[in-house]
Design a protein that fits this description.
It catalyses: L-glutamate = D-glutamate. By secondary structure, the protein is an alpha/beta fold. It is built from 12 helices and 10 strands.
Length: 270
């Protein structure tokens, strides 16, 4: 049985699940949402890196996945290398903002990056821009509210379209912007609203298909048969409804205290 662990701070990673299912029919999925620490975007980097080592260590121990998908831009830019070093026998897929296809497809050479403040200010983004889009103008906007709006919308709460539009509005101050990269897995959940409320037509890109392709490459031939599972670090209102929308069973809470040895691993990665 082939199992893929999809991990995110909340519900945003659900946006990549349909792409993974298309690429790997019959694969067993575990979706893990770290709801107790959502959102990651404004967490202290040192704390978050240690927390991710501890949390992923527990989930790898209990779920025994073949591939771990870090379906979170903030966690990927901050801790992916650390996770690969710590769990060297595990295959990891990170989430990289789609700057390369944005640069290749932009006619004006002006692309926008809509992401969390933690992702926007990461040195990783500077290096990625220089590597894949050196000749483009990159307009960055960090929003601390949009991920929470996406969570609320998927839970069925009322979210105003105008409030969502306001979070992306600063990008459109550049008159030549023609492409926007959604640099958080939560944002594709609101893509239809962002498209409808944008002041002018632009191309919107996310990383879902690329994540699925890399996951399929690492997983290899699928051995089907296992049940899908949903896990959370804290049971939260509306999560069961959101998980059911993506054909997951009701989520259950994980308990890090069942694997105290994982705490020792985390202490080695401040």
């Amino acid at each position: 049985m082939t199992r893929i662990l999809v991990f995110d701070s909340g519900l945003g990673g659900l946006s990549v699940v349909p792409e993974i299912r298309l690429s790997l029919p019959g694969v067993a999925l575990t979706y893990a949402a770290d709801a107790a620490f959502f959102p990651y975007g404004d967490r202290d980097p040192l704390f978050l890196r240690s927390h991710l080592v501890r949390t992923l260590g527990h989930l790898i121990e209990t779920e025994r996945p073949d591939v771990v998908v870090i379906a979170c831009n903030t966690a990927s830019t901050l801790a992916l290398d650390t996770l690969r070093d710590t769990f060297s026998e595990m295959a990891f897929v990170g989430t990289v903002p789609a700057l390369k296809p944005a640069a290749q497809g932009s006619r004006s050479g002006v692309i926008g990056l809509l992401a969390t403040p933690g992702t926007i200010t990461s040195p990783y983004i500077d290096a990625l821009k220089q590597k894949v889009a050196p000749n483009c103008v990159l307009v960055r906007h960090g929003t601390a509210r949009l991920a929470a709006m996406a969570e609320a919308w998927l839970r069925g709460d009322m979210v105003k379209d105008t409030d969502i539009a306001d979070e992306a509005a600063p990008l459109f101050q550049h008159p030549d912007l023609d492409t926007v990269v959604l640099g958080c897995t939560h944002y594709p959940l609101l893509r239809h609203i962002l498209e409808d409320t944008a002041p002018r037509p632009v191309t919107w890109l996310d990383s879902g298909a690329a994540i699925a392709r890399q996951t399929a490459r690492l997983a290899g031939p699928v051995s089907p048969g296992g049940p899908d599972r949903a896990l959370v670090s804290r049971l939260s209102a509306g999560y069961e409804k959101a998980m059911a929308h993506y054909s997951f069973p009701a989520p259950i809470a994980w308990d890090l205290n069942k694997h105290p040895a994982i705490q020792d691993l985390a202490s080695n990665h401040p």
